Amino acid sequence: MRTARRASTSITAIFKPYISFEPAYALFLLSHKLSELVRTNLYLQKKCRRQMNFEPDLETPCDDERGGIDFVASVNSKSLFVANLTATALVVVLAAKCDKSKGSRKFSILLPVVLRTIQLVSMCLQSYFWKWSVWFAALNEGSCNFGIVFGVGSMVYVCSISTNEERIFRMTLLHVLDISATIISSGSSGFLLRKFGFLNTYILCTIFSSVSMIHLALFLKDTVTESQQEKRGWAKSLIEFFNPRSLIEAFELFFKKRKRNDRIVICILSLISILAWSTYLG
């Protein structure tokens, strides 16, 4: 009995430092990846069945399948890509500036989750009000989809709060959770969509994202203590985050002098990332 209790205490001691972040990270990734897979089907169905007033039966043949496929390709390759690229670049730069000036990572992690939750609520409305234009959903997703910002912020946060002994384990754990979320969402998205439909699937994603948001807001420990910085409300944080002067100063990060080899490595890694992500989407 004592041996079992000691083993339980040891396991709890190992995983206790990770309770504040990793569960919320896993829930957000699962919600994000599941909604991404359902999104393509939603765009296709809304474009094919524009005359319907309610969510259609997926077993019904599409009226204009070619037009739906062309529309989805157009949204993914043009409008949504440009919106995501612009918004993500803007927030990454501002987040870097905010972290540098405040020493805080919590705001950079929580903001993408809040925006993603808003976007999921919008997708629920799109599923319920079938007559709404699909372009509204596409633009809304482009302006609120900051999954890259969340991923980068999470890595920086884990590196900031971990010791040298913990860092490798925690970084590996984040990658394992990412891969697991991809596998689970890929395997369950089709079943959920056919069994429960678009609306209920998006409601489930919204619940996951909302729980993650609340968990991060209440339990995520910041990288600085109150004695190191003055307490700031959300209003002041937002003003500092979207300060145009800070934006101009932050863009200097892109033109910072680096060794030639470092620039080549960054460019090669970026190219590999684009090729790998494009293959996954295809």
From TrEMBL:
Topology versus the membrane: Multi-pass membrane protein
Stretches that traverse the bilayer: 79-96, 108-129, 135-159, 171-193, 199-220, 264-281
Location(s), subcellular: Membrane
Domain of life: Eukaryota
InterPro entries named among the record's database cross-references: MFS_trans_sf
GO MF annotation list: transmembrane transporter activity
Keywords assigned by UniProt, alphabetized: Membrane, Transmembrane, Transmembrane helix
Gene Ontology annotations for the cellular component aspect, listed alphabetically: membrane
Signal peptide coordinates: none
Keyword Transmembrane: yes
PANTHER family in alphabetical order: FI18259P1-RELATED (PTHR23507:SF1), ZGC:174356 (PTHR23507)
Listed name of the protein: Adenylate cyclase
Organism from which the protein derives: Parthenolecanium corni
